[in-house]
Amino acid sequence: MKVYIYKIFERFWHWMQAFLILFLAVTGFEIHGYYELFGYREAVLFHDNAAWAFLVLIVFAIFWHFTTGEWKQYIPTTKMIKEQAQYYITGIFKGAEHPTNKLVYNKFNPLQRMIYLGLKILVIPVMVLSGFAYMYLNYPNMAFELASLDTVAAIHTMGAFFLIIFVIAHIYLTTTGHKPASSMKAMITGWEEMDEKEAKELIVSSLEHNLIKTKEQLISKEDSSKFLDDALEATEKKMGISKDHKFRDVIANSGAGYFKINAKGNFEEVNNAWLKLYKYKNAADVVGKHYSLSRSKEALKELEDSFAKVMNGDTIEHGLVMRKCQDGSVGYHTITMTPCTKDGIIKGVEGFILDVDAKNAAAMQWDK
Amino acid sequence: MKRIFYVILILIVPQIIVFGYITNIDEEQEKDIKLINYTKKADRLDRKVVDHTKFEELQKDFERPQDVTLACLSCHTERHGEIMANNHWTWDRKEKLHGRGLESVGKTNILNNFCIGVSASEKTCTRCHIGYGWEDQSFDFSKAENIDCLVCHDKSGMYEKAKGAAGYPVEGLNLNVISQSVGSPGRTNCGVCHFWGGGGNNVKHGDLDKAMIDCSREVDVHMTTEGEDMSCVECHVTENHNITGKLYALSSENKNRVTCEQCHTDEPHQDKILNDHGYRIACQTCHIPEYAKANSTKMIWDWSTAGRLDEDGHSTHENDADGNHNYLSIKGTFVYDDHVVPEYFWFNGLADHMLITDTIKSFPIQMNSLSGSYDDKNANIESTGSSKIWPVKVHRGKQPYDVGNMTLVQPKLWSPVKGDSAYWVDFDWNESIIAGMGYLGLPYSGEYDFAETEMYWPLNHQVSPADKSLQCIDCHTSSPKGRLANLNDFYLPGRDRFALIDNIGIILLVLTLAGVVIHGGIRIVLGRNNH
C-alpha cells in the first residue's frame, strides 16, 4: 500500500539540499587541498556561489516550515528514543517491527527528530556563519576582519566532516524502510510504500489531526459536538461514503471510549470500549465511583484541573494522558472533555478517549 | 509529468548555473586592461620640440667634459640644483631605519654582500656616479660643473665612462655630437649602471638585465619591443629630476615608490577575489613567477675563497657551463642561476640595514631586513597599509667581519698600483681591512673572519604575461613545492590543515562506512537465512 507523505516543495528542498551539500563537499575538500578536480579557482567560485544558493534555499525552507506548521515535526522527544536505538542495534536483525510508525504529522522517529533538529539549529547555521565569515571577513577592506582564518577554517572543516558522515548514515538508513528502496522512492515520488496496518494508522492520525484542526477553527460557548456531528455527516454524504462505513466509524473502530461524569465527580455512564481500555469487566464496577480511580496518584492532579475547567464551561482537547487500569497497569490515550448541559446549566462532563499504542504515545508528544 | 519536471529542475538547473560561471570566467579574461595615467604606445606623440644640433653653445670645442655641463647649464640654468639634491648625485639620503632613528643611508656608507662598499675604492666605483672626479672623500659635491649630464641624456650611444677614472669618460669622445644628441633617458642610459651593478650584467637585481633593451614578452611584458616597448621613465615618472622608485638595498622608508597601481589601479582584475588578494599580496608576487629569465643572476658570493693564485702568482678565473664566472681570485666563488623562483616574505615598505657601526648579534648577518608579518594589519599597521607578500631575490654571501668588535668591515679593494693595501692587487685581507677601516676612521680589532650574510632584493621588473602568472594552486597547496610553503605565520586555505580535526574526521568517516557495511552485511545475511 502506498501513502502520499512528502509534498512537492519538501522533495524539491530535500534534493536541492542534498545536491548542494554534496557539491559543497566536493568543491570544499578541493579547496581544503585533498585533490584537484575543478581547479582551485573554479572550486572556490563554485563553492562560494553554491553557498549563496544554499542560503536562498534555507530562506525558502524556513518560510515553508513555519507556514505549513511542519516545524513541529522537529520538536525533540525522549519518548521511545531508547526503543528506537534498540531497534537499530538489535531489533532490526531479528526482523522486529519498527517501534514507531510514520504518521502524517509525525513523519520522524525520535532519533530522526533529534538529528534533523541538530542539523537545522546547529550544524547548518554554524556552517553558514563560519562559511560566510571565511568568505567575507578575510581582507582589510571588509567592515570587520578576522584576526586569522584558522578558527573559522577549523570549525568549517569539522562541520564538513560531520555533514559527510551524516549523509552516509542517512543514505544507509533509508534502506531500513518497508522495503530497502521504499524510503528513497518516497522521497522522489512523495508516495511511501508501507504495510496495511501502518497505512491505516497513518490515515487515522491524518483524519484525527484534521478533525482537531477543524475544531480549533470553532469558537463556541455551546456544545459543539452536535454541530461537528452534522458537519461530519454532511461531508460523508458529499464524498459518497456509504452508511455502513461511516467516517466516524473509523474512529469508533480504533477504540473510542465514551464516559460521562456528574458534577460530584462520579461516573454516570461508560461504554464497552471504555471498559475494555480500562480492563474492567462490568460497568457496575465503575458507575457511581469517583473518577480518581482512572488515574495514578501523580497523574490525578491534571485530571482534576481539567475537570474543574470543563465544569466552568471550557471544552478540553487533551493531548496524551496516561490511564490507570483496573489491574494497576498503564495505557495511553487522548481525551476530549466537554460540558454536559441541561437547560443551560452544566450538570457534568462527558467525553471520548482514543487509545494510543505505546509506540505511538511518544509520537503524540508534539500535540502536547 | 511532474516527476520529470522535478528531475529536470534538480539535475539541470545546477548545471546551467555551473556552465554560466565557467563561461563567465572566460569572458573576464578577454576584457581590456584598465589603466590610468598612462598613454599607450599607439597614442604617443613623438614630436621633437627642441633640436639641440642648432644650439651654438654645443658647437664649440669642449676641452673637458665639465665644459659640456657648463654649456647645458647656460640654458638649463636651475637644473643643477635639482640634480645635486638627487641621490644619484649624493649617493646618500637621510632615512629612518625601521625601529631606529634617522640615519644616512646610501651608496657612500651602506654595505652590501656583493662588492661590500665603495669607501676607499671610490675611483672605480664612481664610474657609476653621475659626476666627474669623485676619487675620495675630498670630492666637492657643491660644484655644479662636476655633474655628468651626458651619462643619462646621451642619445647617440657613443658616450662611455672610463674604468677606474672617478667618473670621467673615456678619451677621444666627440662631445659635440654626443651633447647635440641629448634627450629623455632611455633604457640604455639607465641600464649602463642599473643593469651592470655588482660588476656584471644582471648580477645584483636579477630582474634588471641588458637583455631588457630588446626582449620578448615572456621576459618583460612592459619593456618588450614586441609590445608596449616602455622605457624605464615611463614608470619611474620623473619631474624636476626627482626620479621615483628606489630599492631596499639602499633605502628603508615607504616613500617615493613606483607602484603597479599607479597605472593599473588597485582593482585591476575583473574577479573580486583576485582584487581582494591585492590587499595582502603584492602584484609582483603572482606576476613575476620567476626572474633572471634571459641571463643568469648571482645568487651566492663567497669572498672567503678569494686569493687563490696560479703558479705564476697571477689571478685566475673559472667559468660555469653558461659562461658565468664560478671563481675569480680577486672576488672568490660565485653561484649563478637563471629562471629563479623567488622567495616570499611579508613586506610593508619599511626596512632596516646592518650599518658598519652595528654590532653583529646573529648569523647569517642580515644586510638589510624587510619589515612585515601577517599580523601587520588593522590596528597593528606599522606602515601605510597592511604587509603584503612580496617576491624577493635573496642574495647569500660570505664576507669578512671584525671578530673582535663584532662588526662588518670595509676592506679597501681597488687601487691602480701594488703595495697600496688594495685587496684586488695585493690579496692581503688584513692589510686591506686596516686600510679601509682607517679610511673611514672606524676601529678594527685586527682579527677578521668570514661570516655568512643574506641580502633581500624585492622584485619589481620582468613582469610576465598574464597567462604565465601564478595560479591559485601554486600557493594554495600542501605540497612542499608550494610557493608559500615557508611563509608559515598564517592560515592559508589549501595549504594548512589542523591535523587533529582532519584525522578525527577521516577516522569517523571510515568508522561510519565500516558501520554501514557491517550493519548492512548482517541484515543481508540474517535476511537470507530467515527466508
Quickly give the structural class of chain B.
Answer: alpha+beta
Q: Portion of residues in helices of chain B?
A: 25-40%
Tally of DSSP helical segments of chain B: 16
Distance between the termini of chain A: 30 Å
* Gross geometry of chain B: globular
Question: Strand order across the biggest sheet of chain A?
Answer: 4-3-7-6-5
Mean pLDDT of chain B: 92
The domain tally of chain B reads 3
Could you tell me which chain pair has the largest interface and how many residues each side has? Answer: A-B, 49 and 52 residues
Poorly predicted parts of chain A: none
CATH uppermost class of the largest domain in chain A: Mainly Alpha
Unreliable spans of chain B are none
Summarize the structure in words.
The complex is a heterodimer of chains A (368) and B (531). With 368 residues, chain A is an alpha+beta fold. Chain A has 2 domains: 2-199, Fumarate Reductase Cytochrome B subunit, CATH 1.20.950.20; 254-367, PAS domain (Beta-Lactamase, 2-Layer Sandwich), CATH 3.30.450. Chain A is built from 12 helices and 7 strands. Chain A has helices at 8-31, 40-68, 81-94, 110-136, 150-173, 182-189, 196-216, 225-239, 247-253, 272-277, 297-311, 358-361; strands at residues 2-4, 191-193, 256-262, 267-270, 316-324, 330-342, 345-356. A 5-stranded antiparallel β-sheet of chain A has the order 4-3-7-6-5. Chain A has a two-stranded antiparallel sheet with strand order 1-2. In chain A, helix 1 crosses helix 5 (150-173). Chain A is elongated and about 80 Å long. Chain A starts with a strand and ends in a 7-residue tail after the last helix. The model of chain A has no long low-confidence stretch (mean pLDDT 85). By secondary structure, chain B is α+β, with helices and mostly antiparallel strands. Chain B has 3 domains: 52-91 and 129-183, no CATH class; 94-118 and 202-475, no CATH class; 498-531. Chain B has 16 helices and 15 strands. Chain B has helices spanning 2-30, 65-75, 79-84, 87-90, 122-125, 150-153, 175-180, 187-194, 232-235, 261-264, 272-277, 283-287, 423-426, 429-440, 472-475, 499-530; strands at 93-96, 102-105, 238-239, 242-243, 297-302, 317-319, 325-328, 332-337, 343-347, 351-353, 365-366, 368-370, 388-402, 407-408, 448-458. In chain B, strands 5, 6, 7, 8, 9, 11, 13, 14 and 15 form a 9-stranded mixed β-sheet that branches. Chain B has a two-stranded antiparallel sheet with strand order 1-2. The model of chain B has no long low-confidence stretch (mean pLDDT 92). At the A-B interface, helix 1, helix 2, helix 3 and helix 5 of A face helix 1 and helix 16 of B.
